[in-house]
Amino acid sequence: MNQLKRKSNPFINFLRRPIRETCQKGLSVLFRKCRTLLLIVLAIPVVVLVRALQPLVLIRFGRLESRRIGHFIENTEIYLSERDGGMHDHRTFDIFYHYLPISNYQVKKMWERTGRLCISPFTAFTQAIDRFNRLLPGGQRHTISPSARDVYGLRAHTKPYLSFTPEEERLGRRELQKLGIFDGAPFVCFHARDSAYLDTTYLNYRWRYQDFRDSSIHNYISAAEELAHRGYFMFRMGTVVKKALHSNNPRIIDYATNARTDFLDIYLSAKCRFFICDTAGISSAPTAFKRPIAWVNYIRLGYIPSGVVKNLLIPKKLWLCKEHRFLTFREILDSDIGRFNKAEEYEQVGIEPVENTPEEIVALAVEMDERLKGKWQTTEEDEELQRRFYALLNPCNLNLKQIVIPRIGAEFLRQNPGFLE
Description:
This protein has 421 residues and is of the alpha/beta class. The chain has helices at residues 2-8, 10-25, 27-52, 69-84, 105-112, 123-135, 166-178, 196-201, 221-229, 255-258, 262-271, 284-288, 329-333, 343-348, 358-372, 380-393, 410-415, and strands at residues 58-64, 92-98, 118-119, 187-191, 233-236, 252-253, 275-277, 293-298, 312-315, 317-320, 325-326, 351-354, 407-408. It has two domains: 26-157, no CATH class; 179-420. The protein has a seven-stranded parallel beta sheet, with helices on both faces. Strands 1-2-3 form a three-stranded parallel beta sheet, with helices on both faces.
């Protein structure tokens, strides 16, 4: 009965929360809530007008996921690709606002100048309109929430939506020269996810549930050394990182701890030869500029990424503790395990994610380098292993024929053919 009452009285619930938080945290919360309430009162006539205009134009409100760089780039790109693909009613007019704090101001600047998005400069007021709209019956029709999943594979077939101005191109070249990159010398970016960014940005939130996505940067050093030997400069990426990178090789640059800026995060991602990364949000930046990605430590195979034809991937292995063995790809993909989104879910069923070894990462990096140079020699055995993996994806991916799926690293499949059983 109580559940029914809460569900049917959203305004009562809306008022209960500030009262409870004021008692717990003091008057500063009350002042902030009063400001929010005032904005919502001012939003009422706007929402009434929007509803009145519905027969002529459907106005929708939504937020850009600006506080997480992966969603900031990816969700927005998916929305634009869907619009270009005719998947949104042509009568709709969408008004967005930024969801604070801003994760990358260069991305913010680039989205705002595209001319493809209506982004309100009055963030707090537009958010209040959106919140009040959602409280009223029929509010969902006037809401737009860009998807985080490119189920139609549209991004692989669209041109980049983000671009640099001529002045930014000049700035980028100057910054590369300061870092010792002259005359178009090739470079590769690499990144290992950890919890440092979220822990420092959201001090009162516990992010342990995302730990299953983390990986150790030290397992990437051998690959960085090998690629440096092949003539590349190597940039270790990251906004905030837990540990510095230790290497005596002058071609390996710990950009994350020494030289990072919002601008260079995007410029390096856009100009690199390829990008080595796990499931961290920064992977959306090279994807936006159609740069090849060598995915390592990939987890959640049920949400396998789509993108550039030349992408490669090796997954984390999933150790089934009670049976002392690794799960096969079929066991992962034919169950919910391939879509687990919390560390606790793995713990509850007794699964321990195992990171890729330095040797596995080196093999993938070498394969990517040689494929891009046109030197890679494949075998019929490699192609058969690849076909067997793709066959397992059929029940798990929507519109699979349209989606560009990465190849699994050849050496990884050679060493683990049992995963395809």
